[in-house]
Structure formats: C-alpha cells, structure tokens
Design a protein that fits this description.
The chain is of the alpha/beta class and about 190 residues long. The protein has a single domain, classed as Alpha/beta knot (3-Layer(aba) Sandwich). Helix content is about 30%, strand content about 20%. It contains five helices and nine strands. The protein has a nine-stranded mixed beta sheet with strand order 1-2-5-4-3-8-6-9-7. A hairpin with a 4-residue loop joins strand 1 and strand 2. The longest helix has 16 residues. The chain is globular and about 40 Å long.
Length: about 190
C-alpha cells in the first residue's frame, strides 16, 4: 500500500519535487526517464536517484517496492542527491501506464535477455527506460507493450549487472547520443 508522503499526490502519480528551482533550470534539456519496476533493494534506488541527479534523468518508481517507500526512506537512500532529482512514484503498473499516456514516450526495457544491444538503440528524449526487479526482472507481459528490449552484452557465463550499474551505463549512452554533456556544462 502506498504510504502518505509530503509530496504533491494525485490519483495517477506522486511527484516528489525536492528542489524545484534546479529542475526548472534544467527543464529545457531533454533527457530520458529512468523507470524502476518494483525495486527490491533501497540502496539501488539510492544509486539511481544519484544517477538521475547527476545526469538529469527523471526517476520513476513503480510500486510495490521490496521495502517501505516513504519520505524518510527516500531521503536516506538518496542522501543529499535527492534534493536535485525529480522522483515520480506510481502505485502500480496501471498507474504508470496512465501517466505514460498523458506524457507520451517509448517504453524500452533493459533486460538480460533483451533483443538488441543498448548501443544500437537510438535514444529519444522522451524514452522511458525501464529496469526490472533485482530478483525477477520485468514481467513478460511488458515485453509485448514495450517498443523494444535492450541488453548490455556481457561475457559468457555472467548472469547480470547490478541494476544501478546497468542504469548508469545505458543512461550515459543516452546522454552521449542526445548531446548532453557533463553536468558542469549544463549552464
């Protein structure tokens, strides 16, 4: 169940705007949206919040999570980086899909069994890059509604990368493709 928070909540999503002036300054820069599907590990969410803050990606979390998701937990997981990221939580997958319909963009899954290497994908500023649960990935049903499935090629016999590490690799490639330089070049 979704715990009450200090954010601006609607029936569709809960938007956590921790530092609106910073986000408003960066809104002119288009960047993909990183979506975590029911994350199991709070430290990985914290690392993804840090990634979003440093590279300008919005972070979406689809609940339920494998840990209590509330304001104090978010602040602890995101440390001081949480003040520099736009976090949007969705009560479930249906609420996320409602949000996506209102804010169009391609849904792209990053999975160990993805059909194409992430380097072959042409990222668009409005893409939603979804990573699955650490314990189970994304449900197979999502493959049919996604516009593509990507993978990070690995050595034979290796199972997977950490979710936050995989997110960092692919978001950095999206930044490169979209011409978004290091944060000190943002303005």
């Amino acid at each position: 169940m979704h715990a009450p928070c200090q954010a601006q909540c609607s029936k569709r999503a809960c938007v956590h705007e921790f530092l609106a002036p910073l986000r408003n300054a960066c809104d002119s820069l288009a960047m993909i949206r990183l979506v975590l599907f029911q994350p199991d590990i709070p430290q990985n969410l914290g690392a993804c919040l840090r990634l979003g803050a440093c590279l300008g990606a919005d972070i979406h979390v689809i609940e339920p999570c494998g840990f209590p998701l509330n304001h104090s937990r978010l602040r602890r997981a995101g440390m001081d980086y949480i003040d520099h990221v736009r976090l949007i939580t969705h009560l479930n997958m249906d609420k996320f899909l409602e949000y996506q319909r209102a804010h169009p963009g391609r849904l792209v899954l990053l999975e160990t069994d993805g059909a194409a290497p992430y380097t072959t994908h042409r990222f668009a500023p409005s893409d939603y890059l979804m990573l699955g649960r650490e314990s189970a990935g994304t449900p197979r049903a999502l493959y049919s509604i996604a516009e593509g499935t990507l993978c990070i090629p690995m050595r034979p016999g290796m199972r997977s990368l950490n979710v936050a590490m995989a997110a960092g690799i692919v978001v950095a490639e999206a930044c490169r493709q979209l011409g978004i330089a290091a944060p000190h070049d943002l303005g």
